[in-house]
Amino acid sequence: MRCFVRIMLIVAALFICGGVSVLGQDTDSKKQDKEIKIEKKTEYELIVIDPGFEAWYSVRNVKAKHKSEAYYKNWNHRYAIEWNRLYRNGARNIDSDIDYDVNADYGFELNHKLYYYFLFWEETNGKKLIKRGVR
User: Fold this and answer.
1) Using CA of residue 119, residue 46, residue 97, residue 56, what is the dihedral sign?
2) Which pTM was predicted?
3) 43, 25 in Cβ contact below 8 A?
4) Closest CA to 75 of 19, 27, 14, 116
């Protein structure tokens, strides 16, 4: 059975520009000092197009069981490497690659949800992506 899974990390770069504020004016030399503040912020969104994932995730998303962001990031990196290896080798139930950058700041929510997607995939496909100990 072909998996309908498409994981896309949609990167929407939002550039939020602050205003220009005049720090001082020197009327003698007609020189103006200006400070321009530009804040760059990148936001990431995880979109999972897989029937049943959201319901499955909502049951397992218990805040009391959350681990650290570093924990999820570490496992996501390992999972993404194996996922992409299988994709490149033509695995029938993986029809997209995952562009996961371990150095990017995806935030807790995205890392948490992606980690749980990998667990969902393992459970629904009856295959382990990577060997691991106790979860």
Assistant:
1) positive
2) 0.68
3) no
4) 116
**Closest among 64, 61, 69, 68 to 119, alpha carbons compared:** 61
Q: Output the DSSP codes for 39-104.
A: EEEEEEEEEE--TTHHHHHHHH--GGG---HHHHHHHHHHHHHHHHHHHHTT-TT--S-----TTS
Encode pLDDT of 99-135 as tens digits.
Answer: 999 999 999 999 999 999 999 999 999 999 988 765 5
- The CA-atom distances, in angstroms, between 58 and each of 27, 36, 117, 127 are 63, 44, 11, 22
